[in-house]
Amino acid sequence: MHHSRSSLDPFLHGDNYGYPWGDTLSTTQKLDAFLINHEATIANVVDANPNNFQMEDPINFTQTFVEAGVDAVVFANNHQFDYNRSGLDETIKQALQYDIPAAGVGYEDEVRKPLLLDVEGVPVALFTAVLINCELDPETGKDIPHTCTCGINETRAGMMDQQCYPATTDAKGQWFYPDITDAYIQDIQSIISAFRASNPSTFVLTYLHVGPNFQWSPDPTRLALLRGMVDAGSDAVWGTSSHHVQVGRLSSSAVLFCASANPPVKNARSLTHLYTGRGVVRRRPHHLRNGRFPVSALPGHHGLLPGLCCAVRAISPRAGRDACAQSGSQDGR
Amino acid sequence: MHVLNLEAKTDDSGGYRVAKIVTHPTKHTTEQVFFADGEDRDWIFNTLTELNKQLGSTAQVLNGTDGTLTVVPSNATRT
């Protein structure tokens, strides 16, 4: 059933679609390219149980992307199936209605291809993949479920068994791997290295929804994955899903930003260690609530603000210097 | 929000590389996202700095006066 809504009020204050971006709006609008990971659906359904982990933004939420100058939206994450496959289809439909390119979901022959962008004359290829990565309980050796980047064995009513699904020839899904193994790393590498070989001048940005979630430091397996992406020819690796600050690594040839999530700051600071020495932090119930629009103001709808944003500013060295000189800024803003 | 500043490679390989990352730390309310400031921004700076130390200090985190944090390779200087 389609239920119409004339505006996004009360939380968008009438037709002010820039409202959710607060004082960041003037910055996002000036970027050469603004890419976001949208970890919610735009499923257009009335949620029977708005307090579970089904993420949904309002039906015309895409207009906030237009207002912010978003150039591409990534759906390679663990919330696109929150309202089943019909919710995924509706989300894609809503995302594309303003001609904002989307990446991360599709059929098998689509998801392994990069989204190609022209950023002020710089060719950018955006690969998007999803891998399940869980922290192991040091006592039992088993996965700690709430640390997994994609949930499995879901039992809550109205939800699919898994949070992530591989794309097939006849069902939309993601470029998805159920684990991090050498074979899976090599499989991803084969795609990226082949593209790199035939596109030497393209800036390759590899997005991975791989966490680790609620851990301060990536484990060696995950670092091997990230480094493998660089070895295959990625110029930058965009890690997502961690839910809190993690470190960036840079070298002269490439950058790894392990997990650049924008956490609800005060909650991230209040996270406490659950397993001393393991780097796992406990998620408190209010952690996710803090990132949602108020459920009370949105009957039947709730969602996360775009939890992670990545912007690419392509500059020539000379143009960069000129911009810095004119603005008096150190970083070319 | 993280801004990747790209520049053309100076060798013969062509293409572009990341010259630096300028982060714009944000904080969320239930309805909006804002740039972080004050102790919230300091917390992010300190956290990134400490994490970087633990992982071998491959990057420097520089605290700007304009609200941004800049991440550069550890052997680089801000230009």
Q: How would you characterize the overall build of this protein?
A:
The complex is a heterodimer of chains A (333) and B (79). Chain A has 333 residues and is α/β, with parallel strands linked by helices. Chain A has one domain (19-327). Chain A contains 9 helices and 13 strands. Chain A has helices at residues 25-28, 62-68, 84-96, 108-111, 182-198, 220-231, 265-270, 285-289, 317-327; strands spanning 33-37, 72-74, 102-103, 115-119, 122-131, 176-177, 203-209, 236-240, 248-250, 255-257, 273-275, 280-281, 308-314. In chain A, strands 4, 5, 6, 7, 8, 9 and 10 form a 7-stranded mixed β-sheet that branches. In chain A, strands 3-2-1-13 form a 4-stranded mixed β-sheet. In chain A, helix 5 runs parallel beside helix 6 (220-231). The longest helix of chain A has 17 residues, at 182-198. In chain A, 52% of the residues are buried. The model of chain A is unreliable at 1-12, 256-308 and 316-333 (pLDDT under 50). In chain B, a hairpin with a 7-residue loop joins strand 1 and strand 2 (16-23). Chain B has 1 helix and 6 strands. Chain B has one domain (2-65). In chain B, the strands form 2 sheets. Chain B has a 4-stranded antiparallel β-sheet with strand order 1-2-6-5, with helices on one face. In chain B, strands 3-4 form a two-stranded antiparallel ribbon. Chain B is an alpha+beta fold and 79 residues long. The chains are: A alpha/beta (333), B alpha+beta (79). The interface between A and B is large, with 60 and 51 residues.
